[in-house]
Each structure stands twice: as structure tokens, then as C-alpha cells.
Specification:
six-stranded mixed beta sheet, alpha/beta, 39% helix, 402 residues
């Protein structure tokens, strides 16, 4: 089954075309990115497997035009990988927020669309863009089934004491204010791949997954189900991230609003886009640039990097306590996959419980790798995430059942 996986942002469309052969077996046919939608000069970057990459700049008025560009690239005689649009069997969409409506991926229907719309208040930067993507696909491929895969679905196994805030209960009943988590497709994928790599039975395991990138979250997974996760009502809660502050004293928010005369929208922008590594360093949210600044002696960059490490160690330690032990710790996402020093520092702080690092394996890790030594009491792995595969796999399962 050929599945087109779509991840729509407010001004972008990220995509992969996968020929699903069954289970985890697939062929990546093409991937690409449409950027700067609705801006004067948009960009399509298309990378077909076995052919030269293709890029073009032109005005892209909306997501409908962006989706048409993607599909045209896929069937282009020179750069394409399909004979016609009819070769696409299904489309899977990443949707950030499904709240408590969805505990698994779902076939897109009018009811599903209305529930995604209802969740826009919880993810105002993401869900409206996902709806645009669903609408754009329907306009161009009206007869192709679509599936929505929710970042929050994997975390719906959390129990009330883990997902409730200690606020008046009426706010949960009236507005749905609770912890929902995010990065669920990534945590699900790397926990299962990690268990297989480590020789564990996922249904009898204690796993901690660390998705560390521009957005970061850690999850405690008991017997294959999420027990707890660091992100909350929105992806703002938890660790320090690229531009998000993570956990802060809630009283800081009204205090800054009064001092700086900020509106709710302005303080939301401050916490989500001007804080985190960028806010502490005052320079950048990019880890490569941050490392360079630290090597040059930049004090604030050093603080930002140490806080990232500190937050990760603290959350991993807390989840070991919640799980009453741990069999496997997995690192993934941009920073988790490419920063050997960060992985080493976390493991060093777990030496008291017998965690031992294989420095050579850790430094060389570029694919699925066990980076703990054979005598380590806990296995530690680096697993590159593949959220698109999870979405495609769910899409195949749901569409095949129609």
C-alpha cells in the first residue's frame, strides 16, 4: 500500500511517500518540504529516492496550492516516483492535539474533523494547520481515505493522578484542562524498537524514552503503555527546549505581564518562542551554535547547556522512581540522536545504580545502537525516531479495515 504521510505547519507541508510492505517493512519513495506558504516566495524541496533532488521557488498562496505542488512533484515525468495520483492508496496526517477524544489514530470523518477543530484552543499553532492539510488533500484527492494520527493518543493511558492538575476540578470539567502530553508517535516507536533491540518483552518492561530536540519530552512507559510524560496541557510544560521555557513557577506569568504590560497573547509568545535555550543564551536555539558559543567561553550558553542536561537527568531520575526501576533508557530526536556528550552525562549520573556506558559505541552511534556496556544493569540505546512510519503503519491498518 502506498501511503502519503503529511505533517502540516502553519506555513509548511512536510511529507513522505512510503510503499508499505507489511509491519515495519517499507520503501521510502520520496520525501520533501513545502515552505513559506502564503509568503511572497515559497519553496518546494522534493527528494525522490534514486533520483536527483528537485527544488523550486515560487509564490504559494495557500495549503491547497502547496499540496498540489507536492502531488505534481510525485507524478512529474522527470522528478516523480508515481505514474498518477491514483497510485496513492491513503494519506496519513500528523495531528498534534486530539485531547481525550482519541486514544488511537482515526479515519478522517466529519466527526473527527469537528473534534480536531474543538482541540484548536489546546494547540493553536498546530491544529488549524493540520485541518488545512486535511482540507487540501480532500480538494485534490477527494476519493482517497485519510487517517489522523494524534501526538496525544499514546499518552491517553495515563491515570487521573498523573494527568490532573491540582486546580479547581470544575476547570477540567468545563474546559478540559489536564495534561495531554505530546510526541506520542515518537515515544511509541522508539520504545518498541528499543525493546526489540534490547531483547525485552514490551508487555513486561520498564522503559524511559527521551525525545530531545527543539521540542523535548521524556516518557515513562510501563509494559508498553505510557505511565507519565513531561509535556502537559500544551507542549510548553516539562524540560527546557529550543524556544520554550518548560516548567516555571506559574506566578512568574502574571508578574511579567504586569511589569512588561503584556497581553495574554504576548506572554504566550514569550514563553513559547522567546524562551528556552534561546532565552537563556540570548543568541540561539540551535544546539550546534550553542556548543560553539560554549566552547568560546560564552557563560550564558554554558548555563543553557547545563540546564538542558540537568533537566534531563532530573526527569529520568523521577521516572525511574515512578516505574520502580528501569530496564531500558532510549535517546532519540535531533539532540538525543546526535549529542553523545549529553547521553554520556545522563548515564554518568546513573552510575550509582550500575549503569555503565560503552564510550566507543556512544561516540560512534549513528543508527539503532546499544550504548551501554555489557555489564550495565540497565540497557541504554540510541534509536533514530521514525514518526512517519508509525503514522503510515496506522494508516494501513485503519484503511485495510474499511
Amino acid at each position: 500500500m502506498i501511503v502519503l504521510v503529511i505533517n502540516c505547519g502553519s506555513s509548511s507541508i512536510k511529507y513522505q511517500l512510503l510503499d508499505m510492505k507489511g509491519g515495519d517493512e517499507f520503501v521510502l519513495m520520496a520525501k520533501g518540504l513545502v515552505e513559506k506558504i502564503s509568503l511572497p516566495s515559497g519553496i518546494l524541496t522534493h527528494k525522490p529516492s534514486g533520483k536527483a533532488p528537485y527544488s523550486v521557488e515560487l509564490p504559494i498562496r495557500d495549503h491547497n496550492e502547496g499540496m498540489k505542488l507536492v502531488l505534481d512533484a510525485l507524478v512529474d515525468p522527470e522528478h516523480g516516483v508515481l505514474k498518477s495520483f491514483g497510485d496513492i492508496d491513503a494519506v496519513g496526517h500528523r495531528v498534534v492535539q486530539g485531547a481525550s477524544y482519541f486514544s488511537e489514530s482515526a479515519l478522517v470523518t466529519k466527526d473527527v474533523v469537528s473534534k480536531i477543530e474543538a482541540c484548536c484552543d489546546f494547540a493553536p499553532l498546530h491544529n488549524p494547520a493540520h485541518l488545512l492539510g486535511i482540507s487540501a488533500v480532500k480538494a485534490v484527492l477527494p476519493d482517497v481515505p485519510q487517517v489522523a494520527a494524534f501526538d496525544t493518543a499514546f499518552h491517553q493511558t495515563m491515570l487521573p493522578y498523573a494527568y490532573m492538575y491540582a486546580l479547581p476540578y470544575e476547570y477540567y470539567e468545563k474546559y478540559g484542562i489536564r495534561r495531554y502530553g505530546a510526541h506520542g508517535t515518537s515515544h511509541e516507536y522508539v520504545s518498541r524498537r528499543g525493546a526489540k533491540l534490547a531483547g525485552l518483552d514490551i508487555s513486561n518492561s520498564k522503559i524511559i524514552t527521551c525525545h530531545i530536540g527543539n521540542g523535548s519530552s521524556v516518557s515513562a512507559i510501563l509494559n508498553g503503555k505510557c505511565l507519565d510524560t513531561t509535556m502537559g496541557f500544551t507542549p510548553l510544560e516539562g524540560m527546557i527546549m529550543g524556544t520554550r521555557c518548560g516548567n516555571i513557577d506559574a506566578s512568574v506569568i502574571p508578574y511579567i505581564m504586569k511589569k512588561e504590560n503584556l497581553s495574554p497573547d504576548q506572554v504566550t509568545e514569550l514563553l513559547n518562542r522567546k524562551s528556552g535555550l534561546l532565552g537563556l543564551s540570548g543568541k540561539t536555539s540551535d544546539m550546534r551554535e550553542m556548543n560553539e558559543l560554549a566552547l568560546e567561553g560564552n557563560r550564558r550558553a554554558k548555563i543553557a547547556l547545563k540546564k538542558l542536561t540537568f533537566d534531563l537527568i532530573k526527569n529520568v531520575g523521577a521516572y525511574i522512581a515512578e516505574l520502580n526501576g528501569v530496564d531500558l533508557i532510549v535517546f532519540t530526536a535531533g539532540i538525543g540522536e546526535h549529542n553523545a556528550r549529553l547521553r554520556r552525562r545522563v548515564m554518568e549520573n546513573l552510575a550509582y545504580m550500575g549503569v555503565r556506558i560503552d564510550n566507543a559505541a556512544n561516540d560512534a552511534a549513528s543508527d539503532e545502537t546499544i550504548i551501554s556496556s555489557p555489564d550495565s544493569t540497565v540497557k541504554v540505546a540510541m534509536i533514530p525516531t521514525n514518526e512517519e512510519l508509525v503514522i503510515a503503519r496506522d494508516t494501513v491498518r485503519i484503511v485495510s479495515g474499511l
